[in-house]
Amino acid sequence: MDLVASDPAANSTIKTAPSAVTLTLSSEISEAGSSMSVRAPSGRAVDDGSLLIDGAQALIGLSTLTESGTYTVTYQFMGAEGELLSGSYRFTYDAPAVVSTPTTAATGSPSPSESEVSPAQATGKSSIATDIFMISLLIISFLVLIFIARSLRKPKLKKRKKK
């Protein structure tokens, strides 16, 4: 098993920050025992840890690259036949002097900006109001259950008919 291709290419200099690193090997890769990481010139990890393996290709997502310099991609792949391939390669990122975010023209419906998103939406957690509402529903349900249980326990008095 050999490394056939890489994107960004080994020993290349790129001016546009990639969103992922893709490696292509000569044979199929097993997910078990396979790993890949990308380190910035400062030594900090810039991969997001989301390794995706599809046949003979491996892809790992990257956070936004902001540092100029040499990045190191380190990999270890277990082949479908049980063979192990370990190695690393480098590419150079020549970051622009000013990082700009592309802007888009407004379309028919405005989308909320990140500042307009509530913390509950951003984290996927409920708000205090939602918690209070759910607890109230739980208490009401419990009281209704007690009321029904008590009403079923009380023996009903039967009226006797006089003869």
Brief summary of the model shown:
This protein is an alpha+beta fold and 163 residues long. Helices cover 19% and strands 36% of the residues. The N and C termini lie far apart (102 Å).
List the helices and strands and how they pair.
Blueprint: E1 3-7, E2 13-14, E3 20-25, E4 29-39, E5 47-54, E6 57-62, E7 69-79, E8 84-93, H1 119-123, H2 128-153
Parallel strand pairs: 2-8
Antiparallel strand pairs: 1-3, 3-6, 4-7, 5-6, 7-8
List keywords for this structure.
163 residues; alpha+beta; Immunoglobulin-like; 2 domains; 4-stranded antiparallel β-sheet; 4-stranded mixed β-sheet; 8 strands; elongated
The strand count comes to 8
Which value, in Å, is the CA radius of gyration?
30 Å
What share of the residues does DSSP label as strand, in percent? 35-45%
Q: Strand arrangement, largest sheet? A: 1-3-6-5
- Gross morphology: elongated
- Please give the domain count: 2
CATH architecture of the largest domain: Sandwich
Instruction: Look at the structure and give the mean pLDDT.
Output: 80
CATH topology of the largest domain: Immunoglobulin-like
Largest sheet: 4 strands, antiparallel
The unreliable regions are: none
User: Helicity level, as a percent range?
Assistant: 10-25%
| Alpha-beta content class | alpha+beta
CATH domain class of the largest domain: Mainly Beta
The rounded distance between the terminal residues' Cα atoms is 102 Å
